[in-house]
Design goal:
The chain has 488 residues and is mainly beta. It is built from two helices and 29 strands. It has a domain of 175 residues: Methylamine Dehydrogenase, Chain H (7 Propeller). The N terminus is likely disordered.
Length: 488
Amino acid sequence: MTSPRRAARTRDRVTAALLAAALTPLALTLAAPAAHAATAAKPYDFNGDGRVDLAIGAPGATVGGKARAGAVSVVYGGSGGLTTSTRTLLTQDTAGVPGAAEADDAFGSAVASADLNTDGYADLLIGAPGEDVNGDTNDGTVVAIWGSASGLSGARTLPNFNSRDSDRYGQALAAGDFDGDGDTDAAAGGTGKFDLNAVAGPITKSGTLSEGWGASLASSAQHPFSSSYGIEHLTAGPVAADGHVRLIVHGRESGTDDAVTALADGNINFDAYWLEYLPFGYTSAVGDIDGDGYVDIAVGNHRETSADPSGALGGKVTVVYGGPDGPDSARTPLTLTQDTAGVPGASESGDGFGSEVSLGDVNGDGYADLAVGASGENSGAGAVTVLYGSASGLKTSGAQSLTQNTAGVPGTSESNDRFGARVLLADHSGDTRAELTVSATGENGDGAIWSLRGATTGVTTGGAISFGPATTGVSTAGGPAYGAVLNS
C-alpha cells in the first residue's frame, strides 16, 4: 500500500515537473557543478575558509536609479573578524544574477544559506518579494548564488511551483534537509493560499529543478495564518534528537495582526494540520543553551499587549528548552523581559525588547548565549542585551547591555537609530568564539553595522568596528534600510 506521504510527494513531483516544463529558461551561463565534497560547508562560509561571512540585506537600496530595487552586501570573515576590504555587492544588475534591478523589487528582503550542491562552499539564497514575474505584480523571486574559493558568483532562479496561488515569494527564507532524503532543500515564505513553498534538493548550478511542494498554513484549523501577511520569518534547525531539520514559522493569525508561531515538518509537506505551536512571536533563533545536546528555541515578541496579546510591556523573549522529541514539555519555558531580575534596564512601552534574537557561543565555553535587540529603547536609540548560557540553562546574572554610548562602541546613541534592529552571534574570526554583529537601521537615515569581538569574559568592545552602506558600495539615495536583514 502506498503511504499518504509517498503519494503526496509523487503528486507534487508530477505537478512540479509539469510546471517546470512551462517555465521559460533563463539565459544564464553557469559553471559546471563541482564534485561533491566529503563534508558540506557550514552556512554562510562562502569561500570555504572555515569562517562565517556576513550577508547584509538592504532591500530599500536604489540600484541604477531604481528606487527600492534592493541590494545585498557580503563581508567576508578573517582572522580579525569581519574584513570590509574583502566584500561582494550583489544586486539584480550584478553580472550572472538573473533578472534586472527594478523599482520596488526589494531584493535582499530575506537571506538564507547552505551548501546546496555540497561542493565545500556555502551558497546564498536571496529573496526579492517585490519582483514582478510574467505580468504578475509582486509575484516574488528567489535566487541561489554560488560559493567558491574566491567568494560568491554565478546564480540561478529557484522556481515557485505554486506561483498562481501565492505572492511575495521569498519574503522569508530558510534552507535545510526538510524531507529527510539527504539533500538540502530551500523553503520560501510568501502570501496567499500557498504561503510556504519548498524547492526540493539536490539544488545544483544547472539542470532542471522539477520537484517541490507547498503548504497552506492559512488552512490550519487551530491557528490559521493570515494569507495577507503570509509567512514573515523562517528559522531552520534540528529541534529533535533525530537530527531532522524542521521549520519555525512566523506569521499573523487570520483576521488579526497578532503573531502566530509554529513548528512545521517537511516530512509531511509542512502540513497545516500537524503544526506544533510555540510561544507566539515575530523572530526566533536556535542553539544549545544548556549543553545537553538538544536544540533550544528563543522566540522574540517586541510588541505591547495592547497591540498583541502574546506580547508584554516593552517586549519579551521566551526560551523553550529542547529534549529528545523537540520542545521539552517537562520544562517550563523561560520568559524574559527587562523587568526580569538580572536583565539590564526596565520594561517601558516601546522598548521593543525582542525585536531580534540570536544564539551563539560568545565566550567559547560550549554553551549558546543569547543576544536580544531592543531597537525602541530610549526613544528608538536602541540597545542590545547579551545573556549567557550554562549547564542549568540561560543565566540572568552577568548579563551585558550595549548601546552606542557604551565605552568602545563607535558612534553616539541618537533617537531613532534603532541599534539592535538586527543582531547576530556568529564566529567570523574562526577563534571558536562568536562575534556580536548589530545593525541600526535608522543610523543617519541609511543604516549601519557594528561588530564586536567575543572573549572568555563575554562581548568586548576592544577593536570594535562600524561601517555603513557606502563602505560596501550601497547607494544611500532614498534610504536603503541597510542592515534590515542579517544572516538568518
